[in-house]
């Protein structure tokens, strides 16, 4: 019998999201858990976004604007581009998928970095593509020279997450500029800036300031993180009209729902909420780093981050730490699926949530270490 699917699908390992709090509490018989696993905004959604979405609840029987005119106009105004240079998606993840489906075939290759967002190789393998992975440099930062060296005549697309998930590290502006110039002009470069709003580094710059360096450049942003709309699902890409036109031919009709379109457009104008989200994140990061420093004698360390999470190295396998914290009602993310078995990723929650996580970590690590020694 003929195979049901091709080998590229049969061998594909799907992205595995974290379980919702309600499901984990039911399984473990616990209550009052905190979730620090999915890099969500601990403040909730933008109030302006909530108000905009609520106003549309009675219009759920109407199809959304298939071209997302209002949202695209809001994004265009925010970035100082034309609406024809904007494509919207069901989260920025869909924009990544549309890019691969539009510009790549099974005969093409993609270049990604190791320890980068899991969606990139998944999307490309689903297209039947060959994936070339470039190594990182310490401390778990994109090595753009290695990525440029990995490009071959068959390379069609390259992904750069800046800042990167799950490491939290970033690429300085000068390095990114040099890379964009070095990549052959026929290659599509996707710069994923999902965590852009959180960056504090002075030598960082968005790729939107570098659009003059190459034509085949797509910059992706999301409303899932700093704007607090992860459950609403809205994101967008900015690129030259020629690229956006081709991507819209592949984009599914009505791909951004009616609530998400207006909520996201309203969120862009909620400057006060974004500023508050960043302040809370910086406060939480300082508390988390100080607490981890105090746990250094137990073998704990972390990667400096420009995002709303820290990648934390633990003295035992990360999945053991995850399981132990889970039973205390603290949900973090083990990183074995990324090839980082000794790490967990901890999202920066409210200061109180961060303190609870640190206290629990201080309780479970000695027990885990004693078990290892035994």
TrEMBL record:
EC identifiers of the protein: 2.6.1.9
One MF annotation (Gene Ontology) recorded for this entry: pyridoxal phosphate binding
One Pfam family of this chain: Aminotran_1_2
N6-(pyridoxal phosphate)lysine found at: 225
Database matches in SUPFAM superfamilies: PLP-dependent transferases (SSF53383)
Biological processes, Gene Ontology terms: L-histidine biosynthetic process
Domain Aminotransferase class I/classII large residue range list: 34-360
Keywords assigned: Amino-acid biosynthesis, Aminotransferase, Histidine biosynthesis, Pyridoxal phosphate, Transferase
Protein's pathway: Amino-acid biosynthesis; L-histidine biosynthesis; L-histidine from 5-phospho-alpha-D-ribose 1-diphosphate: step 7/9
Name listed for the protein in its UniProt record: Histidinol-phosphate aminotransferase
Source organism of the structure: Lujinxingia vulgaris
Phylogenetic lineage: Bacteria, Deltaproteobacteria, Bradymonadales, Lujinxingiaceae, Lujinxingia
Gene expressing this chain: hisC
């Amino acid at each position: 019998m003929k195979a049901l699917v091709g080998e590229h699908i049969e061998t594909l390992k799907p992205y595995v999201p974290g379980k919702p709090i309600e499901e984990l509490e039911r399984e473990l018989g616990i209550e009052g858990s905190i979730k620090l696993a999915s890099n969500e905004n601990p403040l909730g959604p933008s109030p302006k976004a909530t108000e905009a979405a609520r106003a549309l609840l009675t219009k759920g029987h109407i199809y959304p604007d298939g071209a997302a005119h209002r949202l695209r106009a809001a994004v265009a105004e925010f970035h100082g581009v034309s609406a024809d240079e904007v494509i919207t998606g069901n989260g920025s993840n869909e924009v990544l998928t549309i890019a691969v489906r539009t510009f790549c075939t099974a005969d093409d290759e993609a270049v990604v970095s190791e320890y980068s967002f899991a969606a990139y190789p998944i999307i490309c393998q689903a297209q039947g593509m060959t994936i070339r992975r470039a190594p990182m440099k310490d401390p778990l930062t994109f090595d753009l020279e290695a990525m440029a060296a990995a490009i071959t005549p068959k390379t069609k697309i390259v992904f750069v997450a800046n800042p990167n998930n799950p490491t939290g590290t970033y690429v300085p502006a000068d390095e990114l500029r040099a890379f964009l110039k070095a990549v052959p002009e026929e290659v599509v470069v996707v710069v994923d800036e999902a965590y852009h709003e959180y960056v504090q580094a002075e030598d960082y710059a968005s790729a939107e300031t570098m659009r003059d360096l190459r034509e085949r450049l797509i910059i992706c942003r999301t409303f899932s993180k700093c704007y607090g709309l992860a459950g609403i699902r809205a994101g967008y890409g900015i690129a030259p009209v020629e690229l956006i036109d081709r991507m819209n031919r592949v984009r599914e009709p009505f791909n951004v729902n009616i609530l998400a379109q207006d909520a996201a457009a309203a969120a862009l104008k909620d400057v006060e909420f974004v500023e508050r989200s960043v302040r809370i994140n910086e406060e939480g990061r300082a508390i988390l780093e100080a607490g981890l420093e105090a746990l250094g004698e137990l073998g704990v360390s972390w990667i400096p981050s420009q995002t709303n999470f820290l990648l934390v190295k633990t003295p035992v396998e990360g999945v053991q730490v995850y399981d132990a914290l889970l039973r205390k009602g603290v949900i973090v993310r083990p990183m074995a699926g990324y090839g980082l078995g000794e790490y967990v990723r901890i999202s920066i929650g409210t200061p109180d949530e961060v303190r609870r996580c640190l206290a629990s970590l201080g309780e479970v690590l000695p027990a885990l270490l004693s078990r290892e020694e035994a």
